[in-house]
Sequence to fold (682 residues):
Amino acid sequence: MTVSVQAVADRAGVSISTVSRALRGVPGISQTTRKRVRDAAVELGYVASPSASRLATGRTRTVAVVVPLLTKWFFAEVIAAAGRVLSREGYDVLLTELSTVELRAGFFASPRLHGRSDGALVVAMQLGSEELASLEAQGQVLALVGSESAGASSVRVEDRIGGRAAARHLINLGHERIAFVGLRAGPGSTLGGVPPAERLLGYREALAEAGFPSDPGLEHVVENTVDAGAAAMAALLTAEEPPTALVAASDEIAFGAMATLRGAGLSVPDDFSIVGYDNHELAGVVGLTTMDHGVAEQGRLAAEALVAALAGAPAAVGRIEPRLVVRGSTAPPRRLRAGSR
Amino acid sequence: MTVSVQAVADRAGVSISTVSRALRGVPGISQTTRKRVRDAAVELGYVASPSASRLATGRTRTVAVVVPLLTKWFFAEVIAAAGRVLSREGYDVLLTELSTVELRAGFFASPRLHGRSDGALVVAMQLGSEELASLEAQGQVLALVGSESAGASSVRVEDRIGGRAAARHLINLGHERIAFVGLRAGPGSTLGGVPPAERLLGYREALAEAGFPSDPGLEHVVENTVDAGAAAMAALLTAEEPPTALVAASDEIAFGAMATLRGAGLSVPDDFSIVGYDNHELAGVVGLTTMDHGVAEQGRLAAEALVAALAGAPAAVGRIEPRLVVRGSTAPPRRLRAGSR
DNA sequence: CTGAAAGCGCTTACAG
DNA sequence: CTGAAAGCGCTTACAG
Fold:
């Protein structure tokens, strides 16, 4: 049924050792022999048994990609970008979604990756020290996106700078009452929460620099869903002195906020300005001005760092600086515009 | 470093055969022995080497999930749902994205899954007979979503019924000029194309039943992107006698169409009605009436059929009937509404 | 440059 | 119910 090294060896008239060496491209094999073996392998449709190679070498040449959720645009984008470099580099990708606290606990309670992958690319999960220790005890080389750990590769997004730039853009347009809706992990969520916090810090920084008084009533922290964004916007509209603009910590929050405004008969950006965060694939359609934090690039950089580390390179940390993408959801506030009624 | 069967055997005072049997739950082991072995394994933190088990048994207990694209909501949703049942059933999931024709050709040219997975769950790719043969030669048990093949499990979505229901809804509201924007694989795309065609057939069927003349000018076929949807809508608006409603073969097409209408100053649904297809996670925010074809369920059903087939059950074909989800993007045409100016 | 042999860590008839 | 031994299909020192 299945073609083994022995079959190739017979056909090429060499030993199995030679077949193994010839096919893996190790040096110390004559050109003619190598060619003969390769031809035989091709003719027979031979491909080494992964299980056998893995057992013999102790290396799996597979990377586990672990995410809290697969169904959010952000994660799919990161995984896709990472997966492309991993498979280009000859690694299999073992997909692991830890979408509930039970799943997460179970995953770290036993050495589930041991012998299955050589490394793990962990996306947007703040790993506890026991969790990190568990992964390391399982012999995993690590690459983190959205979190950091000494000795592990990671990609760091300058979210404070991003949050600051978003708020700055609105300030520059003339807005003075600017709200912020940030992200919080929901109950039962396995998402980490540090980067969003940095976005909030950047927002506060910009306001302070502009000399605006800090106003806790302008800051909301909600789950990362469209509905939560819609609800937060609604709450903001009930304030004594409502804001004229919003920095949303994600595009999904922004989408929800836009829906609420539309429902209230308010126009974006004529009556209200919004800056999102992500540059979601659908941000363009709705004309959302947003912070692009190179989502695909996060995945790519992490995968590249992991591949390098698996080849013996020291852990590396990548850096991404978010940049503003101006579309139609931001404009000067009504009071500053000529011709406004 | 790594704990082997031998270590567990020593600690439990039995042979390695007994350890293996006790841990895998095979019958013919005394309760006391089994417990002793299990305790020893836990104390030692032992977990069998996957490579070794795979080599010995010839089974990998992993399933390859192959998709044309990871970054579309549809695929992420299907994979997530499938992945949850697969890992619940103890299978590893090997992720394979074939996003270009080169990648696809390379994948099928060599037995890339051989010895890596016991089965493959293939999403939305019309596999050619050579491709199917390749997979079978690699010993893969198959489950297909969005395509069918004799002997393979699959889940069939009644897209003709769905397309018909969408058009019907508009007809019932009183529309008489109803356009259709369908899906086509773009250049270099690896997407299959049969299900979308069925949606078109259903649409035509509904129009014929209503006695409307068929009008090719009302039918467009484009790539499945928001931009293509926007462009198609724009083209429709230039017709001599423009339609008053649209059946979009995907929600992304519908999103694009809505953007075009908004840009043209037309109101949905006051001036124009739209029915989408998918029930995309963001369909709710924009108030899109759409056909829900149980995307997550497609993944779940396929995975369940695959797991069953891997356990020896005969191939099964699941069936999903799309259902209309009415939101705010559809209404009677202007001419039928009282109080319209 | 090439081959014989040991070893990777399991599973599974075969005996008892 | 339990154990000794062969075998799964590779890789890799070790000799030559």
